[in-house]
Write the structure tokens for this entry.
Amino acid sequence: MALLYAEQVEYLDVEEMQETHEDEIKLLNEVDKLATKYLINKSNLSELEAKLDEYIAHVKVHFANEERLMRKYDFPSYDMHKTAHDMFLTDVSYAVKQWKEYGNVDKIINFIYKSPEWIVLHINTVDTPTARYIAQQMALEKE
Ligand SMILES: [Fe+2]
Ligand SMILES: [Fe+2]
């Protein structure tokens, strides 16, 4: 069983946003698998940490790219969407600090396990209308 399935989130009108979400869900599920293994036998910490770094880097690029698209197409609710990203990143940073500075990898594992709820809500209620707007603007641009 995966932590999150691509089918749980809306399919977006902007292809690059959709692809980013699918790639990120794959990474999240890889983190989940490694974390579960780590919690059972404590043997694969470096592999888990490398995957966590990869996942977090992906989240940052993902958010920055959505923000770039929103600015490019003058999305009216940019501030609201950007604030939602920033709040999530603040929580990520706190968990990363606990992990990297205090060696508490359990904090980031807990954060990962709780994150699907936010991810599904964000994609379905914030990214979906954003992508709809951006796709309309992209279509107008082509005319
Ligand atoms: Fe997104
Ligand atoms: Fe977003």
Q: What stands out?
A: The chain has one domain: 10-142. The domain at 10-142 is CATH 1.20.120.50 (Four Helix Bundle (Hemerythrin (Met), subunit A)). Residues 2 and 29 are 6 Å apart (CA to CA).
